[in-house]
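quick one before i forget lol
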Amino acid sequence: MSLEQMILAAVAEIFRDQNFSRFRTWARETIPELLSLDDEQLTPAERARLGALLGIAVWNVTPLPQYGYHPQPVTLPTSHQPCLCGSGRRFADCCANHGDLPVMPPDLIWDLIVDDLPEDAIQTALHHHAIPDHLLARVATRWLEANHPGRAAALLEPLFSGALDQLDEQLESALDVLCDAYDELDYSKKKHQFLLRVTQDGSRILKAAAWQRLSTISIDTGEFSRAHAAFEQALRHAPNNPANALLEITLLAAQHHNDLARERARFWQHKFRRIPLVASERVMTFLTHAIRDPQGALAATHAGAMDPVLLALRDWLVEVIERPLPEYTVELHNPPAPLFTATDQDIPLSLFQTAPLPLSNPTAASMVLRPPPAIVQIEQQWVKQFAASKPHALHLRPLKDNDVWEHAHWIQFLIHHPAAIDSLDILDDLATIIYDHPEGGLPWLMQTLLRPVCERAVAMMTFCLAANPAMQLAWAIETNRPALRLLFRLYLIYAEEGRDDHAILLLERLLQLNPHDQHGVRAELMNHYLRHHQNAKAIVLAQQFPQDSLAELVYGEVLALYRLGEHDQAAAVLTNAIERLPRIPHFLLRKRIKRPLPNPSGFTPGSDDQAWLYREAMRDVWVAEPGLLAWMKKLTA
């Protein structure tokens, strides 16, 4: 039995009747047996004396319920009084001759029992102020898990009501739990004010903890410049804190700077090897993992708090993702697909709201992809197991999720059907629910779940369509929607990662497969072309949609022509653009302009809303082109 187990057994015996004499008798007889003390090296009297002394050390720091959970240490006897160990001899003739009595840390017992005490005992101990301050965070965590954030906050707030510079690192966990309670209560302003106060008035270690929390908040909201500034402050106040290593890897991984994250993980690992006992084995294991795979390391770090179904899905993907690509059959759809379906009318686009679709694209025979018969059978069984619906029309979230993560018997279906990875329809369902999961937006989950699902789907499509590069898969055909939606999701992932070359290729592929472009990807493609100075491609794209009302295409052609030195033609196109979307120049030319109030009737072409959104997306590109805004101002004066 370990020392900790022995202490817990002793505490249980103390709590049984809280009688010192009876406990000492128990300790003399039982503790030596619990610790398996060697009979050959110790006499029976020595074993009993050692058991008693260890028991007394436990008794002296054990909170006693009958005294309001405060300990009642025994008094050291005088030389002529009976020895504490229960030997019957005088103290001067017994333990006084063997040096100082064993002593245990005063908060040790609380540290071992606070998580397991019943609620009525916790309330009694709190009433008598018996629980050490630094362990109140553990009580507050219990209350948070029981959905009592208000009680948790009320318990911890007094810890920070006084001089913050006098508080040490033991209250770091209390700071974190208090912030968690504020999150549950939706007290974001109060949390922010509290953290700022700690950064100004706290001790160095608490300042670092507050800056770490502020950095994490900014990472969650995508404000990476603020997150980096807060991280730098945390690093300044606690340069050797292992939490800063985890924070920096998280910050870099959230921005998909995986190579730099590997370098920094290597730096931190080398640093902690030179400073012994600073970083735990768990931290060093994380850094070793992060050197190989930063996203995977973060996913593993958060595994304990993650939805177990997400973890099971991740494990299944690892097992099946390398299966050979299946062969789908390419078939002509008959009758030809309509341009619109009833569900597409008046539905907001995933990227760009209500913009009239072009009607002038050349019509090509639309095809469908048919899975092999074995996959069809799996799909038929899948729909009986999987309760979530497909996204409605052009949306990306399910119309109804039907608590698919709560009733996740479908994960067992996947485990028993590895070939489900060969179904575009099932991959579409998985991508939809991963995207919709509360944790699905975390970068490391996107990397380990959503991205492999979408990349598998696109690899399957590329393999099946290799012999038909000009083939179209019209969105209007329901059968084609899973494939197109997966392609679109992978574009969003690549765009967020800053992999613009890959993103452009996917947008071009989407337009080729579905030239009616219900998703409005032509606008995003135009912006990518212009940001990468692919001006000739930008002009060709704009001319494919001459009647378009998306500002990206209408004004993108102006920018591309100007860059190529075709100023007269650019002026003519600008004149036409102003007739169709007159508010754009006003919003581009102003250095500062107030955001317009949203139109209650929704987004419409030519509105201030549209002009504002285009300004936000592309004004930096216009400003960077020498003379362009002055030229536009002159022509629009």
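fyi Strands lie at 329-332, 367-370.
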